[in-house]
Specification:
Keywords: DNA-binding, Homeobox, Nucleus, Transcription, Transcription regulation. It is built from 13 helices and 27 strands. The protein has helices at about 35-45, 165-170, 170-190, 205-225, 250-255, 285-295, 300-310, 465-490, 510-525, 540-545, 570-575, 585-590, 590-610, and strands at about 15, 25-30, 50-60, 70-75, 85-95, 100-110, 125, 130, 130-140, 145-155, 230, 240-245, 270-280, 330-335, 345-350, 355, 360, 365-375, 385-390, 405-410, 450-460, 550-555, 565, 610-620, 625-635, 645-650, 655.
Length: about 650
């Protein structure tokens, strides 16, 4: 394979496979390190392959020509909470050639190849390394030319169909292994030259260790391995958020870390709330860049304060989540970045603000160590990630880290690269609030791509507060998911020609027509005005409906009614978006009393056209209870006076 020209599927100088068994990538590059040093780095896979959990060399056999044969067992992390991790049983042969080159060959040992059978770990799926390796040639004057071939079969058939692109994409393999190896070697070479400035007065190796610990801690949280001490907590029926606890945090933190300041003497551990979800038509790089630069759009300052207080061994009440609240500004302090700026390490200072929670007022700056990667929109197959952990002002080299964050991985090949000119200043886009669908116009981005988002948040807890922390964490992740959905909707490129009923954003002819029907039908049935406007234009009616303070929503006239439209207050109340709205049924949000009241009044609604329903409690799509003083239901009539849908208005609603 050495010397073959890159094909049509190549990523720059990286060639990737097409229609072969498994997935493969190939690259070559020049680096300013000697072959033996390059080989040493490549064999230390956990230092550059972020998905690698461990590499155990179980046996080393010397060969007659001075080479070695090694039997290796390797485990890799699963990138999401939705599939099992992989492990490999590998034979590796290393040998020197007459011209001073080094060659490292690898392939899996299977029943077909013969040889000893490797370890079997529960909950891992055995994957296969097909013939792969490295050829490292010395260059005149110093340095090396490296040829890399990666070829694996990740057993894609064992994962849910929607996730198979993660395991069948040679571009994802190229980004995670082939390109990552080349970049890491070049990074080490650049650091060795002494030309690289670093922030914080720390050695490059120390900062690189911080990056590795953040990434590894996040992977540990997402995977929750039993042998690390993780176990699942019982759920609250809804399976959208998984809660895992680890009562052996010392093992989790690592032997080089003193975790005593995080876990008090009265006993405690680590709790992780995590979830994965599919996103439609959202560039992963753009979403992660926005989450990094606009933390106040999704983070709760009370939760940040709880995490920060855990580092000080000072008691702090478990916060209740608030629908809104002042959040001090964030200041990003750069620490380090890689040579090609695909990854950067930084300290985030959250400027002090007062937070009142039952007994505690905390007003001081908080600090996060943060790792951001994959924010180049043009990097095919790149995973975008934002991982952070609270730190104290001392920021010691052995500071305990409890990473949380986001990972967004593309599921489909990109057909159109997003415009490089798209702005990240989305304040105007987000003015419509949760669920808004206005998006920056970008005619070049018409592709319908999918990605999988994985969220994991970790918290330390004291044993007597475990249930309270679990409830807070579960609710917080649901709230963050809703916020991310809102941001994702706002930054998703507009798709011209969308024909699905009521999935068009406000401003389309269908929305104008429905707004007119809703207002006219309410006036006809009740004799009162719903939409008070100075102008009779269609735009004025739609704007009045969209901005109405009460929650107004429409559902289909079917045996199992589903929502087809909601105004801004309605989307806020349901904690959803216009696109996700059609997945929510009327029955799902009403409690027993609400369903009984609607059933008893339904004949009246169909005969007289409307009915008033008593106040009560309903449930948002995220499981949060919502109270309302009164509900009004009325029949929406079209221009031909035929029933089109049912409208509901929830008056003076609020989260309980």
């Amino acid at each position: 394979m050495v010397g073959m020209k890159p094909g049509p599927d190549s990523i720059g100088i990286i060639a990737v496979s097409h229609n072969c068994s498994g997935v493969a990538a190939r690259a070559c590059g020049l680096v300013s390190l000697e072959p033996t040093k390059v080989a040493e780095i490549l064999k230390d896979r956990p230092s550059w392959y972020r998905d690698c959990r461990c590499v155990d060399v179980l046996q080393i056999i010397p060969t007659g020509n001075g080479g070695t044969i090694e039997l290796i067992y390797m485990q890799t992390y699963a990138p999401t909470t939705l599939a099992a991790p992989r492990d490999f049983w590998i034979l590796r042969y290393t040998s020197g050639l007459e011209d001073g080159s080094l060659v490292i060959c690898e392939r899996s040992l299977t029943q077909a190849t013969g040889g000893p059978s490797g370890p079997n770990a529960p909950n891992f799926v055995r994957a296969e390394v097909l013939p792969s390796g490295y050829l490292i040639r010395p260059c005149e004057g110093g340095g090396s030319m490296i040829h890399i071939v990666d070829h694996v079969d990740l057993d894609a058939w064992s994962v849910p169909e929607v996730l198979r692109p993660l395991y069948e994409s040679p571009k994802i393999l190229a980004q995670k292994m082939t390109i990552a190896a080349l970049r890491h070697i070049r990074q080490i070479a650049h650091e060795s030259s002494g030309e690289m400035p670093y922030g914080g007065g720390r050695q490059p190796a120390v900062l690189r260790t911080f990056s590795q610990r953040l990434s590894r801690g996040f992977n540990d949280a997402v995977n929750g391995f039993l042998d690390d001490g993780w176990s699942l907590m019982s759920s609250d029926r809804a399976e959208d958020v998984t809660i895992a606890i680890n009562s052996s945090p010392n093992k989790l933190a690592g032997s080089h870390v003193n975790p005593s300041q995080m876990f008090t003497a009265i006993g405690g551990g680590v709790l992780c709330a995590k979830a994965s979800m599919l996103l439609q038509n959202v560039p992963p790089a753009l979403l992660v860049r926005f989450l990094r630069e606009h933390r106040s759009e999704w983070a709760d300052p009370g939760v940040d304060a709880y995490s920060a207080a855990a580092l000080r061994a000072s008691p702090y009440a478990v916060p209740g989540l608030r629908a809104s609240g002042f959040m001090g500004s964030q200041v990003i302090l750069p620490l380090a970045h890689t040579l090609e700026h695909e990854e950067f390490l930084e300290v985030i200072r959250l400027e002090g603000h007062s937070l009142c929670h039952d007994e505690v007022v905390l007003s001081r700056d908080m600090y996060l160590l943060q790792l951001c990667s994959g924010v180049d929109e043009n990097a095919a197959g790149a995973c975008a990630q934002l991982v952070f952990a609270p730190i104290d002002e001392s920021f010691a080299d052995d500071a305990p880290l409890l990473p949380s964050g986001f990972r967004v991985i593309p599921l489909d090949a990109k057909t159109d690269a997003p415009s490089a000119t798209r702005t990240l200043d989305l304040a105007s886009t987000l003015e419509v609030g949760p669920g808004g669908t206005r998006a920056p116009s970008d005619a070049s981005s018409t592709s319908n791509t999918r990605s999988v988002l994985t969220i994991a948040f970790q918290f330390s807890y004291e044993n007597h507060l475990r249930e309270s922390v679990a409830a807070m964490a579960r609710q917080y992740v649901r709230t963050v998911v809703a916020s991310v959905q809102r941001v994702a909707m706002a930054i998703a490129p507009s798709r011209p020609g969308g024909q699905l009923e009521m999935k068009n954003p406000p401003g389309s002819p269908e929305a104008h027509t429905l707004a007119r029907w809703i207002g006219r039908s309410y006036r006809f049935h009740t004799g009162a005005e719903l939409l008070c406007t100075e102008s009779q234009s269609a735009d004025a009616s739609l704007k009045a409906l969209w901005q109405h303070s009460d929650s107004i929503m429409c559902c289909s006239l079917k045996a199992a009614p589903v929502f087809t439209f909601a105004n801004q207050a309605g989307l806020d109340m349901l904690e959803t978006t216009l696109i996700a709205l059609q997945d929510i049924s009327l029955e799902k949000i009403l409690d027993d009393d609400g369903r009984k009241a609607l059933c008893s009044e339904f004949p009246k609604i169909m005969q007289q056209g409307f009915a008033y329903l008593p106040g009560g409690v309903c449930v948002s799509s995220m499981g949060r209870p919502v109270s309302y003083e009164q509900a009004v239901a009325w029949k929406v009539l079209g221009d031909d006076d035929a029933p089109h849908c049912l409208a509901f208005m929830f008056v003076n609603w609020s989260f309980v």
